[in-house]
What does this fold into?
Amino acid sequence: MYKVFYVLILAFMSTLSWGHGGVANDGNQCKLSVGPYMMNFSGYQPENNVSKQFCDDMPGVGKSIIVLDFIDNKLRDMTVNFRVLKTDSAAQGNADDGVINEAELAQKPFFEIPAKHYPTGSMTISQDFKEEGHFIGYVIVEGENEKFISRFPFSVGLPPAGIPEVLKIPIVAFIIIILIMVWFSRKKSAVPNEKETDD
Amino acid sequence: MLNLKKTIAILVAAISIVVAVYAAPVMAHGEKSQAAYLRMRTLLWYDVEVSTTKLMVNDELVMTGKFYWFYDWPANIAKPEVAFLNIGIPGPVFVRKASYINGVSGVNSTRFDIGSTYEFKVVLKARRAARIHMHALMNVKKAGPLIGPGRWVEVTGDMADFSNEVTTLTGETIDLETYGLQNSIRWHVFWGVVAAAWLLYWLFQGPILIPRYKKVKLLGENADDMITSTQRTIGLVLLIGTVVVVTWSYYDTQAKYPITIPLQSGRTNIPPLPDTTLGVRAEVVDARYRVSGRALEFSVNVTNNTNSPIRLGEFTSANIRWMNPDVSTAEPADSHDPVATNGLKYEGGIVYPGETKLLKVTCTDAAWETHRLAKVVYDPDSRFGGLLFFFDNENKRSIVAIGGPLVPVFI
It folds into this structure.
């Protein structure tokens, strides 16, 4: 029984929840790492949920907007190529998600934004995902003497695996309250027994 | 069988350990973490410069600039009735030698007028080697620090060479780096020994902590009987001794140093700079934040009461600058200086003397997101603020504060 509690503690106390491959949920920001550089990754589905911002996985099919905001100003001087491939397999949730696959890069992408400069530091990608499924995103940045590639699997229209982030704290609070209530109820029930013994 | 009491104790202990042991890496020093409305609608800094970005220990650096106290001050933020100009630096890399606001010494705290502009100058002396991101900073009582633009500065050299000599009012030259250090250590050790002796004494006087608490509960009204007459005598001696030593130390200090200088607990009132608008008025008609485009779009009615035609060259807010390179250019001072060199575009062109014209302005840059300014659209009142810089033919600037409600647009 103790093991259950230890597992719960370890599961809920982790402050960093990692995404897939190059995209990670860092604190309250979704970040994409490309070599030594960082971008903010924001996904929107204006038709489904206008004000909600997503990190890599898109909850529904339909018109989707992905915005990459360059945290490192040096990226403004580099070209950025964005491409998405279709795949049958889901993200594994480990380091393999970020491993660059040359065979994938050689494939014809599902869609692609050719390499170009983004002097305002923001790259906006609009795409209408008509059907649900698994995808692999690639971001390729290239400067004068450097080139970096980031890979991140993501899904469209599929339910997220595991406990949703927003439910974690309420669940922990609920379990703690239940434990305390059980503890107090047992403590109260123990008092009459002691009195009986004293008498 | 599960021991719930033990389990809850383990749970609490485990959470405490995890929280205590885990420390997330601290990035920068909070310039992006302050709420967007706080950065946009309190203190707006501009023209901030440092005299050098590379210097040796003992060299001096001068930071200068201007700040404007935004007219549409947030209702939940304390107004600058008591404020102190400072520099935000991680650790004592510099010592502050002097600071001035509108030419008046900034050694005291100051009251500022909302809707007014001031200029500042801070003289710093390099103390130890480091590469730091330093900010101008205004500490406002009950509001906290309002952070200005940052600059990367590198100090080289050996801290052992540092000296901070000043001449006192009595003509004595002292090094503030070491002055009074021995005396300070002596007093700390003295009171530390007294405190430790007092603590140790009571550790060996019967039960302590929970056992003592239990005994007190057991004795009830007679709990005072636990303290013996010897213990009372020792306590009285220590009390009298403490009062005597503190009193003597005050008289001794007064005798040795009869002349002192006022510290920042004093207050000064500094009149603001003359009106920076120079007769230009601007009122926001409507404003939108285009979420996916990372762009602020607003319409502004501009009235030019000067004698020269003017054009819009810059919008600045929260230490970020959106430049219109057709009118005014600026380059980032370093890798972390948020300057959108081509971030401002507007329709409407030149505003001639005596004319009132509607300008449609767009300020685009990733900084809205990477500097977390876009969060302003999630605020209950969703209001933005900033400074518009108009330029005449001779590059003379009219600086006008604007602000208003902001509506997010997704498509």
